[in-house]
Amino acid sequence: MSGQMRILVIEDEKNIASFIERSLEASGYEVVTAFDGETGLEILAASDFDAIILDVILPKFNGWEVCQQVRQRLQKDTPILMLSAMNHTNHIVKGLDSGADDYLAKPFKMNELQARLQALSRRYRRQTTAPSVLRYAGLEVNLEAKEAWREGRKVKLTIREFKLLECLIRNPGKALSRHELLEKVWGLDFDTGTNVVDVYVNYLRNKIDKGYPNKLIHTVYGMGYILKENHDASE
Predict the structure, then answer these.
(1) 165: helix, strand or coil
(2) CB 165 within 8 A of CB 143
């Protein structure tokens, strides 16, 4: 790997934390470990990392609370890979809504964990020279302020909903498959085996299209989703 990534592992099961630490260090990563949410937040307040591996069930602060504090109080956009034995879609959605970038179910294989870290790192480092405000059919997305507006009315979005909307408005008139959305929005180049994309599209539709006769987010059957003014070949 090019360069050394600095990873914070927040995991209270010491055998799992040790396994992750040893495996990542053997692959050239620099690893710091915390065994509870409070300590993890203290470390993050004092130092920066390239990625965070975060367990859901933790003493003092759980993983969801840590995510929220990292995003809101510490104002850090460090990629977060959440770990949990709870693999239900509702738990995944809760983690992503809290500010996590990806979700890996336990038990996991180290090569998959490292692939997820690399995908997160690529997406985090990817910079664009595109305009900071994108507009389409009465929809406005401010990339710097992380705000969205529909017909002059502000739309309150979660981090993940905003990223999904950004992906759609960057590709108006183009049908994007669920696989493409997983890669572009979640940084994954493989199927998670859940309906997370569909869940978030429904969330976004309720906030962007509900109450407006001109629907913008449509389903392209057998393909995925598209941001488009008319309804040809879509919902």
Answers:
(1) helix
(2) no
* For residue 156, pLDDT beyond 70: yes
Spatial strand order in the sheet of 224-227: 176-177, 224-227, 217-220
What is the structure's pLDDT at 191? 61
**How many domains is the chain built from?**
2
In three-state secondary structure terms, 103 is strand
Question: Phi first, then psi: what are they for 92, rounded to 5°?
Answer: -65, -45
List CB contacts of 72: < 8 A, sequence separation 6 or more.
Answer: 99
1 located within any domain:
no
CA distance 46 to 33: 14
168 sits in the region (left: phi over 0; alpha: psi -120 to 50; else beta) called: alpha
- The confidence score (pLDDT) of residue 128 equals 38
Q: Is residue 39 in some structural domain?
A: yes
Same domain, 63 and 160: no
| Structural domain harbouring 143 | 133-227
Residues 98 and 11 in one domain: yes
**Which of 198 and 235 is assigned the larger pLDDT?**
198
Bigger pLDDT: 87 vs 191: 87
